[in-house]
Request: fold
Amino acid sequence: MFALLAEVGGGARFEDAYRARAGESLDELIARFTGGLALAPTARVGTTLDGSGNLSWTLGGFAPNSDVRITITGKSYDLAFTVRTDGIGMYRGTFGSTAALGTYTLTAQSAKVHATATIETASR
Reply:
């Protein structure tokens, strides 16, 4: 590990140094590491507002690098957009600073799975 880090410190890309030492790509390591984990898709909402008045929300357990349709609905509110998960099937967003106080439902839907969460902005 120290030799690998020394190579990276000398300017090598981590992915290249890892492949040279381990004989597999970083993507193969991640797939092997996470392959046995049966992660159920989740949508979680934070409880602390950021400096702009937003709550953060995080998706997990979706397919890596996949499109996920997000809808956020509430009383007189309907927003829909598509996001792309990262290499391990996660995505992070924010919501709330421009929305009226209230309760909203966040739904995340991909081709195979979905998850929901409640966003409560009434406690600002």
User: Anything to note?
Assistant: The chain has a mean pLDDT of 87. The CA atoms of residues 42 and 60 lie 5 Å apart.
